[in-house]
Amino acid sequence: MRFALIDNNRVEAQPKQQGVCPNCSQSVIAKCGKQKIWHWAHRSITSCDSWWEPETEWHRTWQSNYPADWQEISLLDEKTGEKHIADVRTVHNLVIEFQHSHIDPQERTSREQFYKNVVWVVDGTRLKRDYPRFLKEWISDGISEVHKTDKSGIFKVWFPEFCFPEAWLKSSVPVIFDFRGDGSMDDSEGLRNTLYCLFPQVGRHARVAEISRKAFISATTNGEWTIRVQNFINDFRKQDQKEHQQTMSRPSNEVIYAWRGIPLLGGSKEYRKRLWASNKAIRKRRR
Ligand SMILES: [Zn+2]
Question: Can you give the three-state secondary structure of the chain, one letter per residue?
């Protein structure tokens, strides 16, 4: 944890200090070593929050974009008595969770249900393959079928599973992918500084928005984020309805190759490409 209570003040860890955990009121000690980032740790247990994960520089840098009294907010579900610490909760009741480690989809869902109004910021550099995979799909002719839309910076992605880690695809809230890491990685394409927001999927196609760091931090800070996301999702729904009506009125006798119910423009060739790629992923997992 970044903050503990000393004399009821929230303070950061300093060598040899002791404090009290704001979440469970147990005593915590300052860990100020050379390996890990300075933090507070419980004496007897790893953490009182089962969802807690070790903090990284990336995590702290993100947290620091928001006021200190919005960080590490202990939240209680009064019905179940469940208590968790939100990485950031704004004064507009938006929770921002910074996720470096792997998370299984079940836990992701539980957290979304607990926090309700939440946005994920995911470290897209955790696995070596994550960024190259995204890059390939985003700038060259990958197989995800990334299509521009009428709105600048918003893309339709037919097969997002070839772009982003699978655990995030069925999220019920927006997921922001951050590929910058600690800023030391090669960025000859100049794409790492932008954030990529995967919206919860409402229609047949996933939507991804390119958004600058500054715009994201500003919209989440001033409270506009939630309503803007809702407006976008409403627009996506309308567009999908319109397109659905259009495709329904165009009958054809040709054999249509489809992937997950979506007709493929490239026919059987495209179908085989996708099948091969998805089998490859399965083969890798089995190994
Ligand atoms: Zn605690």
Answer: CCEEEECCEEEECCCCCEEECCCCCCEEEEECCCCCCCEEEECCCCCCCCCCCCCCHHHHHHHCCCCHHHEEEEEECCCCCCEEEEEEECCCCCEEEEECCCCCHHHHHHHHHHHCCEEEEEECCCCCCHHHHHHHHHHCCCCCCEEECCCCCEEEECCHHHCCCHHHCCCCCCEEEECCCCCCCCCCCCCCCCEEEECCCCCCCEEEEEECHHHHHHHHHHCCHHHHHHHHHHHHHHHHHHHHHHHHCCCCCCCCCEECCEECCCHHHHHHHHHHHHHHHHHHHHC
